[in-house]
Amino acid sequence: MTSNGVPGRDAAPNRSAGSTGSDLAPEHIARQLKTRWLGRDYRFYSSLDSTNSKLSALATQGFAEGAVLLADEQHRGRGRLGRTWIAATGESLTFSILLKPTCAPAEMAPLALAVAVGVAVGIGEVVDLPLVLKWPNDLLCDGKKLAGILIETSGDGKNLRHLIVGVGINVNQSAFPEELGGQASSLRLATGKNQSRPEILLAVLRGLEKWIDLWRGLGSAPIIDAWLKYAPWVGEEIEVKTSTGIECGVAVGLNPTGALILEDGLGHRREIHSGDVTLIGSV
Questions:
Q1: Is position 10 within any domain?
Q2: Looking at the structure, do residues 247 and 107 belong to the same domain, yes or no?
Q3: Are 267 and 138 found together in one domain?
Q4: What is the reported pTM?
Q5: What is the tens place of the pLDDT at every residue in 25-81?
Q6: Per-residue confidence at 7, pLDDT binned at 50, 70, 90?
């Protein structure tokens, strides 16, 4: 794909790089895919260490924009802030997307918000749940994490060669390790029944394509407006762990670049460009 979402010469057909017995294998997904450019090169692996790492390596081989790589099982997936994202066979959706935007790395924050909205919108098409986005791109339900997003860039600091968008969605887990401290949930736990992973995947890919296209065409304004609709905690007090310490204040909103705006008790406002948010109270 080219950066505007039009198939290019390097577009490749759907293919599988592992077992094709899964309902997530290309022969099942390809005939149901409704996107124009995202996932038209769709690659399935029965097991990988990390979908982001694998796709990053393949990106240097001329892969088209919009390529999607999914692993049914992931051993060493990466989350934000150096955390690990483990996905057992048959329970979740862990996949990565190759994008080649024509902007500087400093302009990427609204894209992360667009990806978060796309995931939330897609899941919301399949299940009726009170989904909440925690800045910048964690998806929660009843205060517990359902999905996470990790965006990794490749470039020289001024120009992007490509970026990898990693998405992990907890779908059919019935329990989580004790070390997560009750902080994670799944669609199965939230709805009380198993969910179709192919249906969730197809809906999320549609949502991602729509909101990435909107970001490209209209910029950050509609993205931020949509993102804030999933953030009922805006207006409440929060804590943000940054590289320099803990910032506390009332979340006022987001600026046009996607930075979080905090207001202290004296009415002073400051912008937070990266950090880990703790929501105080329920959302």
A1: no
A2: no
A3: no
A4: 0.88
A5: 999 999 999 999 999 999 999 999 999 999 999 998 989 999 999 999 987 544 444
A6: very low
Is 166 among the domain residues? yes
Place of tokens 């950050």: 220
Same domain, 144 and 61: yes
Q: Are residues 112 and 212 in the same domain?
A: yes
The whole-number pLDDT of residue 280 equals: 77
Domain that holds residue 193: 15-228
Is residue 4 one of the residues assigned to a domain? no
pLDDT tens-digit readout, 162-197: 999 999 999 999 988 887 768 899 999 999 999 999
Tell me the pLDDT band of 209, cut-offs 50, 70 and 90: very high
**2 domain-assigned:** no
CATH number at residue 274: 2.30.30.100
Based on the structure, what is the number of domains in the chain?
A: 2
